Every structure is written in C-alpha cells, then in structure tokens.
Amino acid sequence: MRLKPAVSILALVCALHGPGPVLAQSVPDSVQIHEVIEGYIVGWRTADANLLSRVFATDRGVLLWPSGDPGAETLNGMTFEDILARGRRPNPAYGEQWKIRALDIVDGKLAVAKVDISREGGSYVDYLVLYKLGVGWRIVTKTYVVR
Which of 94, 95, 124, 133 could bridge to 41 as Cys pair (CB 3.0-4.6 Å)? Predict the structure, then answer.
C-alpha cells in the first residue's frame, strides 16, 4: 500500500524531530476569545468569582450599562474588581443560550465581540472589548442592552 505524499512527509518530520514543537500549533485567536466569552457566561451564571477573575481584566476593566426612564437614562459604570468584591448570586437562567453574532479581531491584539445572551424573560446584547495581554485574552469592557 502506498502512502499519500502528505502522510509520508508528516511521518518523516515526526521521525526526525519527534512529536514536539514541529506539530504544535497555536490556538487561533478566535478560539481563545470564544473560550474567554464562554468562561465569562458560565462564571456570571454560576457566580464563580475565580472564573470571572480569569476572564476579566480586573485591574482596569469596566462594566457599563444604562438605567433610568426613557429619555432621561444615565450611564452607570463599575470596575470588574468592584463587581468581584461585591459578589454575585448564581443565576441559572443566564446564558443557557448564547451566540457570538460578530467578532472583529484587529492585529491579533484587540477584539470586539457582539454576543446575544439569553436570560429569563428575554435576552441581553453584550458588546465585549478584549485585549490580548501577557496572560492571554481578557475582557476589558462590557456594555450591554436588555431586550
């Protein structure tokens, strides 16, 4: 039986170099960002402060949201560090269904994600800004509207 050329070249590379770095491929940014967003949703649903601290840029990140009567809304804000210190209650209905609707990655360093997230009685649309820092992708800004 004759091997296809791609298979025989792969076998030769493995024989010469072993299975180490030659076969190792970095995980694409889009996959890493998806994992961070999933960690955020699961952490928010389960009130897991440890998980949230691994996906948020806790030293500088902020959450922004509008509140108030229509026409007189104000913009509220809170740092991720303050959110984690305040604590959260589990919310089992949060994010049972979610989808990244748009993802724009700029130069492998900055990303903006539009995420639809289910909640009891409706949904949220989150816009998440992420930076790739020394520790990997982190959410630096979260802003949202309730639907």
Answer: 95
Quote the strand ranges of 1-147, DSSP E: 62-67, 74-79, 98-106, 110-119, 122-133, 136-146
- What span, in angstroms and rounded, lies between the C-alpha atoms of 52 and 50? 5
Note the pLDDT tens digit of each residue in 72-115: 889 999 999 998 998 888 999 999 999 999 999 999 999 999 99
12 Cβ contact partners less than 8 Å away, ≥ 6 residues apart: none
Q: How many CB atoms lie within 10 A of CB 142?
A: 23
Residue pair 106/130 in contact by the 8 Å Cβ criterion: no
Q: How many residues does the chain have?
A: 147
Stated pTM of the model: 0.79
Location of structure tokens 């770095």? 21
